[in-house]
Design a protein that fits this description.
CATH class: Alpha Beta
Helix content: 25-40%
Distance between the termini: 14 Å
Strand content: 35-45%
Strand order of the largest sheet: 6-5-4-7
CATH superfamily: Bifunctional nuclease domain
Number of strands: 7
Order of helices and strands: EEEHHEEEHEH
Largest sheet: 4 strands, mixed
Number of helices: 4
Radius of gyration: 14 Å
Length: 128
């Protein structure tokens, strides 16, 4: 999947990101908070800030501890809430760390190119 679009509503507290299949026609929206939407949008449209922000800090921490964030997986949809994990390679093992999709997507765009984003097939079937 790829981040297809972000919609920021300055007067509301729910923003929207749209994910789209890279090789397919499926897409779906995820509601996210203003802070996460701003972090994603800032990374896409502006130069990096002079000092690390929260998602930069997490990336740097993982890397300084010897890990490598490999990708993002949206794993579930329950009661209109999406669930995701960051998959981190550390000491030869793949560790899955629970994450809000909004934070996982924000971390993804802090890489160039962005980290791969995957969505479980059952989630795609439910939103499709």
């Amino acid at each position: 999947m790829e981040l297809a679009r972000i919609v920021i509503n300055d007067i509301g507290d729910q923003q929207v990101v749209f994910l789209r299949e890279i090789e397919g026609g499926r897409s779906f929206p995820i509601l996210i908070g203003l802070f996460e939407a701003g972090a994603i949008n800032r990374r896409i449209t502006e130069d990096p800030p002079p000092r690390p922000l929260t998602h930069d800090l997490l990336r740097s921490t993982v890397e300084q501890l010897g890990g490598e964030i490999e990708d993002v997986v949206i794993t579930d949809l329950r009661n209109h809430t999406y669930f995701a994990v960051l998959r981190i390679r550390f000491a030869g093992e793949l560790i899955e760390v629970d994450s809000r999709p909004s934070d996982a997507l924000a971390i993804s765009v802090h890489y160039d190119p962005p980290l791969p984003v995957y969505v479980h097939e059952d989630v795609l079937a439910e939103v499709g």
